[in-house]
Amino acid sequence: MNEIETGTVGKAGAVALVVAGGRGVRLGGPVAKQYQDLAGIPVLRHTLLAFCHHPAIAAVAAVIREGDRALYEDAARGLDVLPPILGGASRQQSVSNGLRGIAQLAPARVLIHDGARPFVSAAVIDNVLSGLDNHPGAIAAVPVVDSLRRSRDGIIVDEVPRDDLWQAQTPQGFHFASILNAHENGGEGHTDDASLARAAGLDVALVEGAAENFKITTANDLTRANAAHAARLFDVRVGMGFDVHRFEPGTSVRLCGVDIPHDSQLAGHSDADVALHAITDAILGAIGDGDIGRHFPPSQAQWKDADSARFAAFAVDRVHARGGQLAHLDVTIICEAPRITPHHCAMAARLGEIVRLSGDRVSIKATTTERLGFTGRNEGIAVQATATVRLPV
Fold this sequence. Notes:
Elements: E1 14-20, E2 37-38, E3 41-42, H1 43-52, E4 57-64, H2 69-75, E5 85-86, H3 91-102, E6 109-114, H4 122-131, E7 137-143, E8 148-152, E9 155-160, E10 166-175, H5 176-185, H6 193-199, E11 204-208, H7 219-231, E12 235-249, E13 252-255, E14 258-261, E15 264-266, H8 274-286, H9 292-295, H10 309-321, E16 325-334, H11 344-355, E17 362-367, H12 373-376, E18 380-391
Parallel strand pairs: 1-4, 1-6, 4-5, 7-11, 16-17
Antiparallel strand pairs: 2-3, 6-10, 7-10, 8-9, 12-15, 12-18, 13-14, 16-18
Helix pairs in contact: 3-5, 5-6, 8-10
């Protein structure tokens, strides 16, 4: 998506604008809430993934705070997103900057979403987009279910009827030209984009949101989010991957992203990292999502000499996009040479970095075939990998 040119989103195209420029001071911690850890990856990455993998979203852009670029680059690593847009002093100013930043794409629609709402579902995104079929604006919302009271000095003074009361969420969707005009000509101080749109005379529809689409604001919210994520992961899957690459003249062998000196190299269309290829297939197999050849065909020139770390990271992203989590990797490298043991620690560390797993969740072993078969004749390397994945039921 970061190569989309002016006006290429198209008439029906929708762009997701993820607002992630806040400081999150109420949550506390060393970094803003959108960059804090949720189930092993930054909160913001969960949010970006939800839109990156939605078929109706043509492009995804984030609005970030100046000084957060390094944090953002880590959260968005490997994702197909547009370059980040710098925000302003307020959320309203940040959204205005974001709208101007994507204006060259000429989208028909824009969905504006809080970066700290990581549990937005495809169904909620669909609901907002459907609402825009008949209205210039549509926002996700849930009905107020608890009794409401008005107080004075801590004493109840009145009951507030909850009929027809809704709790607004994001995404908030709009016809792009209309909301851009509202931002360009509206005053400051609006609570959200729906408020600004209504002040500009736009009808804004309420569509069904979801209780789990809550915004992380406090430390308790983050604790709740981690518990909610873990509580859904009852579906344990195991995938297996196997790959083989032959040797050809060279000076090193790449395994798990580490170059090991050797008198040969592995042959392949990409960097021929046979270990990462087997790992990618194991992860994709666990979620029933095809294999490496389906997503990265060797017939396509763009993958020639590609870093196989991209393939493995992509597979993990596919797990995250389904609300799941990679739990463990077990890798067995089968060869006579080179010797794997001296490089074991470096390989495990690099693999953990690629797939975002701690060291106790990555196992790398090496064995031989006692001089039998093609590996025994030192003609190449074989790798088998097992991936354990947890998915929501």
